[in-house]
Specification:
Order of helices and strands: HEHHEHEEEE
Oligomer: single chain
Distance between the termini: 28 Å
Strand order of the largest sheet: 1-2-6-3
Number of strands: 6
Radius of gyration: 16 Å
Strand content: 25-35%
Shape: globular
Number of helices: 4
Helix content: 10-25%
Structural class: alpha+beta
């Protein structure tokens, strides 16, 4: 693997091929475990299957170098499951980032107008010289 590679494939299968402690950082937007369907009726594989999503965090932890970060988007309605999986893998939650959106991705009891991610640490990484704010700007991609 070279610097800044993007590898496409099933994350569990790909991660198992990588050396332990060979990755500098992970940003993941795994299925949220919310049985998502977009306005066109599209869905995501394993979005209703915790066993198909949560075990990957053990492999993420294994492949991350010591004293590094994983930023993980998650489904708020499954935070209890994500939190247990992160903890069991060895991660510590060290931060939370929110991206406000100008539109609601879902309406129910509330209108869901944000995305959020936890910042997870393996070990004790150095703090940044200039920390990010915990609220970031959201740029809509059109889901394309």
């Amino acid at each position: 693997m070279t610097t800044n590679d993007i590898i496409c494939g099933d994350s569990m299968n790909v991660l198992k091929t990588l050396r332990a402690e060979s990755i500098d950082a992970v940003l993941t937007a795994s299925p949220y475990l919310c049985s998502y369907r977009d306005r066109d009726g599209r869905s995501l594989a394993n979005d209703d299957n915790p066993e198909g999503v949560l075990p990957v965090f053990e492999e993420i932890y294994r492949t991350l170098k010591r004293d590094t970060y994983c930023v993980s988007f998650y489904g708020w309605n499954a935070i209890d499951q994500f939190s247990v999986a992160w903890s069991q893998a060895g991660f510590r939650c060290v931060g939370h980032i929110v991206w406000p959106k100008r539109y609601a991705s879902r309406k129910g009891l509330l209108q869901y107008c944000h995305e959020s991610a936890y910042v997870l640490a393996k070990g004790f990484p150095d703090r940044p010289c200039i920390p990010l704010t915990d609220v970031q700007t959201w740029v809509y991609s059109g889901n394309k």
